[in-house]
Amino acid sequence: MPPSGTRTVATDREERRLGFRLTLPTQVLILFIAVFPLLMQLYISLTDWSPLEGTGWWRAYELWNGFANYTDLLGDSRLWGALWRTFVVMLVCVPAEFLLGLGLAVLFMDDFPGKRVFYSILLMPMMVVPAVAGYMFFMLFQSGGPVNGILSGLTGLDVTIAWLSDPTLALVAVMIADIWQWTPLMFLILLAGLVGVPEDQLKAATLLGASWGQRFVTIMLPRIRTVLIIALAIRVIESFKIFDTLYIMTGGGPGVATETISVYIYKVTTQDLIWGYVAAIALVILIALSVLTVLAMKRMAAAGGRA
Amino acid sequence: MTTIRLENLVKSFGSFTALKTMDLEIGNGEFVALLGPSGCGKSTTMNMIAGMEAPTSGRILFDGRDMAGVPMGKRGVGFVFQNYAIFTHMTVRQNLAYGPKARGWPKAKVDAAVAKIADFLQLTPMLDQKSAKLSVNILQRLAIGRSAIVEPAIFLLDEPLSNVDAAFRAVMRTELKHLQREFRQTMVYVTHDQLEAMTMADRIAVMDHGVLQQVGTPIEVYNDPVNLFVARFIGAPGMNLVEGTLAETDRGLAVDLGAFGLSPPLPAALAGAARTAGAKEVVYGFRPEEVTLRTEGPGLRAAVGFVERIGARTIVHFGAADRALKIVAEPSTAVSVGETLSIEPVAASVRLFDKASGRAIKGAA
Q1: DSSP assignment of B193-245, as one string?
Q2: Interchain contact A85–B (C-beta under 8 A)
Q3: The pLDDT of residue B126
Q4: Which residue of A has its CA nearest to B80?
Q5: Separation of alpha carbons B67 and B61, rounded Å
Q6: Cα distances (Å, whole numbers) of residue A105 to A121, A200, A221, A236
Q7: Is the bond preceding A3 in cis, omega lying within 30 degrees of 0?
Q8: Which residues have CB under 8 Å from A55's CB, separation 6+?
Q9: Which residues does residue B282 pair with via DSSP β-bridges, in sequence order?
Q10: Confidence of residue B7 (pLDDT cuts 50, 70, 90)
């Protein structure tokens, strides 16, 4: 019998080989759906290639322009404008959704009559297809639409605000739609976290004389830290990609007033057809978002160690 | 440092009555164990004392003051949870300081109190450790310290040892009893483990099916169970209980135990009580520890079923199923399976119960 040490090493190698063989189909799949398009994107981003050229994308090297696309995007004011609007949407919508979701989740920790009904109603916006939600809000914000109708009723004046044609109000309307649709997700995740807070710890804190506010800050918030970061990370990433609802409501207009990064990329892809440039923008954004995600994950891992 | 009085305490959950009229008085600095099988209402009683649940009817008085409507944070009750409910995301120090900070004590006072209690409970070396990874006996001390720091009037402990492995329980029991003596706190301890109740409590309140069965010192409850439930529940192994019929013999009143034969004559006082009570069908009880075992002689005749040798003592099992007897004997006792022996209970240890009511028939002491 060989010494056990050698045997273990041999078995380890054997096991690793088996593992490799078992995961091979998945690895090939990942190669095709993730790695290959990424490399293709990188390749095209270094050229002036466009589908109008009539040549296949693999011959894009004939239009090689080095890093010109990347230097171009630094001076693209429309791109920076779109990025800025995307950040505005993120900075307004995510905190709003978070605070509303947290408040609702706290309310739902206790029992009250009709809780199940309210729960179902609250989750409904999340189930609506974003494009459909877009049409709903498109209708709601028409100058003769229900929003103005309600405002007229409340103020007693004849309100005829042209929401979707005013550059500022259009962005506000788009953000309201986003908050309406995604607060439920925040609510759901945070409620799951709050329900998981150990009941006896809350009771122990109460018996020690802690008020509700003290319990919230010292027990509940630290306990749902991880969940909280996950919820925020999901919404930050998602709000960066805001598209369907917005595109149907305003199409990015009036002018470029509601043109976010997704809308801009969509337009450049389908209208201007400069795919080399599009590839460069998309790659930069992908890297930026990845860095953001990794940072969030690191914070989460750290929080996980503490909680 | 408070007396607790429970007056006609009742708790129902819908149609289910968890506690049926409980009356109990717990003295200042006393350690009382609420003992009973699960579902007997002991935890419900404790939760009502703590204010986590409101009684359906009846009153809870602390030092004569009615606690109805006093929220749990204001009752001055220290509560040690079954799993200790330590705030695992905080350090030991933060756990200890939680109560004082919640009450808004000035920082200097909080620090002084934490230092004092940590020193007393030997928690000073781990004050700045995260409490998530502490061993269970430190968690117990921390749980007690966290409640004790705000000087509660009474301490409630909800089966704190049930998650501890058996080997360590003895250590924890000793430590808990020691702490109780040091604090001289009124303590109410809920448990289903009679060993915990017997070793630690000044008095035991035995409960079953929402009814308080007996209150007394561990020895009282052990020696003079008021009914069959208490007799069966207290003691390991429990009391031997054999159904029989009273029979007059030429040597006095005895019990006809069927297959086991006739019991030795009852002691005069017990015989008198049995005659007075007028019962015919009785249950004859004696502790497995208090018997004389012989090959021949007076007593119950039974065949040895099997023998458990557990070191310090030997448990001899007689008979089968519903008419089984257990005898605790010396470790060196030589008996063989199948052998028929005479079991003579020590006269003073014999107890009689009325078969119909389950109540003890008591002779004048």
Answers
A1: -HHHHHHH-SEEEEEETTEEEEEE-HHHHHH--SBHHHHHHSTTTTPEEEEEE
A2: no
A3: 87
A4: A204
A5: 6
A6: 14, 19, 12, 19
A7: no
A8: A49, A62
A9: B244, B354
A10: confident
- Residue A208 C-alpha, separation from nearest chain B C-alpha, in angstroms: 5
| Cα of B95 to nearest chain A Cα, Å | 10
- Convert the pLDDT of each residue in A128-148 to its tens digit: 898 899 999 998 988 888 888
Q: Across the interface, do A203 and B81 touch by the CB < 8 Å criterion?
A: yes
Q: B146 CA to chain A: closest CA distance, Å?
A: 8
B4-86+134-229: which CATH number, 2.60.300.12, 3.40.50.2020, 1.10.10.10, 3.40.50.300?
A: 3.40.50.300
**Chain A residues touching B87 at Cβ < 8 A:** 201, 204-205, 218-219
Which among A200, A214, A219 is the nearest to B81, CB-wise? Answer: A200
A208: amino acid identity, one letter:
L
Tell me how far apart the terminal alpha carbons of chain A are, to the nearest angstrom: 48
Instruction: Kindly state whether B102 is in contact with chain A, defined as any CB-CB distance less than 8 angstroms.
Output: yes
Which residue in A242, A239, A241, A247 sits closest to A134, CA to CA? A247
Distance of alpha carbon B148 from the chain centroid: 24
Q: Which among B351, B361, B365, B359 is positioned nearest to B276, based on CA atoms?
A: B361
Nearest Cβ partner of B89 from A200, A206, A223?
Answer: A223
Report how far residue A40's alpha carbon sits from residue A87's, in angstroms, rounded to the nearest whole number: 28
* pLDDT tens digits, one per residue of B158-173: 888 877 777 778 888 8
H or E stretch including B61? strand B57-62
Q: Over 80: is that where the pLDDT of A253 sits?
A: no
In chain B, the residue whose alpha carbon lies closest to the alpha carbon of A213 is B102
CATH classification (class only), B237-361: mainly beta
Give me the residue label for tokens 């589908």.
A51
Q: Do A205 and B98 touch (CB under 8 A)?
A: yes
B122 alpha carbon, distance to own chain's centre: 29
Query: Which residues lie across from B19 on neighbouring strands?
Result: B11
CB-based contact, A204 to chain B, within 8 Å: yes
Q: What is the pLDDT of residue B322?
A: 64
**Domain segments of chain A: what residues?**
17-63, 69-306
Block residue for tokens 């290639």: A49
Q: What is the mean pLDDT of residues B134-159?
A: 85
Q: B85, A219: Cβ pair inside 8 Å?
A: no
Count A/B contacts: CB-CB distance under 8 Å: 57
Q: Does the pLDDT value for residue A3 go beyond 60?
A: no
Enumerate the residues of chain A whose CB falls inside 8 A of the CB of residue B99.
Answer: 208-209
The total number of residues written for chain A in this structure: 307
| pLDDT (0 to 100) of residue A1 | 46
Quick check: bond before A167 cis, omega within 30?
A: no
Q: How confident is the model at residue A178 (pLDDT cuts 50, 70, 90)?
A: very high
Q: Which pLDDT band holds residue A6 (cuts at 50, 70, 90)?
A: low
Neighbours of B284 (CB within 10 A): 25
CATH tag, A69-306: 1.10.3720.10
Task: Report domain extents, chain B.
Answer: 4-86+134-229, 237-361
- Partner-chain contact A210 B52, CB within 8 Å: no
B-facing residues of A in 215-244 (CB < 8 A) are 218-219, 222-223
